[in-house]
Amino acid sequence: MSLSLSPLANPIKRDGPVVLCILDGYGIQSPKANPEGDAIVAANPETINGMIAEAKERGLYTELAAHGHSVGLPDADDMGNSEVGHNAMGAGQVVAQGAKLVNVALEDGSMFSANGWTSTVKAAAAKKGRVHFFGLLSDGNIHSHIDQLEGMVKGAARESPSAIFVHPLIDGRDVPPTSGLIYIAKLEAILKAVTEETGVPAMIASGGGRMHCVMDRYGSNWSIVERGYNHIVHGKVDEAELVSGYKGYYTSAEEAITHARELFPEKQDQFNPPFVCVDADNKPLGPVRDGDAVVNFNFRGDRAVQITKAFEAPEGAFDHFDRGVIPACLYAGILEYDSEAGIPKTYLCPPPSITRVLSEYLCAAEKKCYAIAETHKYGHVTYFFNGNRSGYINEEIESYNQIVSEPNEMIEGHPEMMAEEVTVDLVAAIESGKWDFVRVNYANPDMVGHTGNFDSEVRCVKFLDQCMKRVLAAVEKMGGVLMLTADHGNGEEMMDKKGKPKTSHTTGAVPFAIFDPKYQNEYKVDTTGIETPGIASIASVTMNLLGYKQPEFYEPSVVTLE
Ligand SMILES: O=C(O)[C@H](O)COP(=O)(O)O
Ligand SMILES: [Mn+2]
Ligand SMILES: [Mn+2]
């Protein structure tokens, strides 16, 4: 199939660029949520609201679905997330996502006969090695799902390894902030049943909070990965963690987490210190040894790539931290995380195939494209946007810019994050006259949303509003067009129904507003005949605004040209 696009008969003509502005996590509150928790409404962002009001008046506004089936998730009420949201916006198509593909491979058993499994779990078990699973323990379904872990632990037990060890990372970010012990109890019950039914000893060996151990992304803070590598592989807790009476080594995960909660009541699960489970002689239960299999059960790539490199890179080819004595283990990811870079080398389930993305078409049409975000979301607007592919489509006509983030992701004290720097760069890109299509992700509403701090979220939205004023002015000055939207909700639900802080994403719809100062009624936002207009439509709209018809297999455009 060719990548050439048919031009529209009556394209709109603008001098400036088409800009896609993604306010990450900027949703519209659903009627079921707690109105007191809507930090976006509370912030009353005048510029954004004014722009939306004008778009509504002109027929250039709609709401788009950004969760569940609209973004390829297994269940209709799955909340949205950055990966699937950016995939949808950048691919113009809704593909069955990793969450769904892993479910299918477990249900039909194909995972257990595929090469990924037989060359790691089965191979280790055949030589009486042990099998380790590590990853995010929750049912958030953004990076992982506890049911999938259960399916794999049961599958591993059928191979009769000498033991199974699970290294859970507690969540509190995609699920309620201190719900970790609920999932630990579920996991303990699963492991107990497996041990009783199969005779294969299965137990929790180590763990920690996801944002403190293992799950860094985009190279923002490698010490998080190091901490996780040490507790999983070496059964070791760093000295620096042993403060205020925290021991690091406990007889069970429950004991460790309970003690951490008593000592550090202000910490959410996501930041729980690492722990290692020990036997009666204080020896770690399950460090990784030569010949063991290790499975990363997170299916989403952004926070799985760095730890995968730590496991896979040979001696001498890894300089992010000292890995100590590296065990010769058989490593697999549950899914392929980066098809371009081939990470991981071995995986248990093929990833969604996301092809013929917007960037490929625009590059083929020689449209010059610019993408920008700060580190925490840089890969969202590049790697996820381009269908989980790192790197450029065509470096000669594209430029991707990363504004380096503060390494700490718990930014409630500085909700402005790097939005100022992003704005300066974005305005310069718009005003340079060099680009046909500019896309930007503002990380703030989502990242601050994950802290559960309502006041910080309000402050962040107010600040973003100031930024938007300058961005809109630049678009107006250059005679361009801007689409304002989001990848999923978050900031509009900062409290649950009981008034407790809420850290996770939502199932809310997102705004889609077009700002077009040179507008002369040439087109309208029109969703007639589209059953559930979703954010995947944005790729088609982008093509239309640039003068092209979208390919037939793309989601329908919500724009009708007059
Ligand atoms: O990884 C995270 O920070 C959360 O689990 C999901 O947030 P994101 O989908 O907005 O990145
Ligand atoms: Mn997001
Ligand atoms: Mn998020």
Describe this structure in words.
- The protein is an alpha/beta fold and 562 residues long.
- Helices cover 33% and strands 15% of the residues.
- It contains 17 helices and 18 strands.
- The strands form 3 sheets. Strands 3, 4, 5, 6, 7, 8, 9, 10 and 11 form a 9-stranded mixed beta sheet that branches. Strands 2-16-15-1-14-12-13 form a 7-stranded mixed beta sheet, sandwiched between helices.
- β3, α7 and β4 form a beta-alpha-beta unit.
- The longest helix has 25 residues, at 454-478.
- It is globular.
- The two termini are 29 Å apart.
- The site of 3-phosphoglyceric acid has 11 residues, from α3.
Name of the CATH architecture of the largest domain: 3-Layer(aba) Sandwich
Total beta strand runs: 18
* Number of H/I helices: 17
Low-confidence stretches: none
CATH superfamily of the largest domain: Alkaline Phosphatase, subunit A
Active site: 82
GO molecular function, one term: phosphoglycerate mutase activity
Binding site for substrate: 143, 173-174, 210, 217, 300-303, 377
Pathway: Carbohydrate degradation; glycolysis; pyruvate from D-glyceraldehyde 3-phosphate: step 3/5
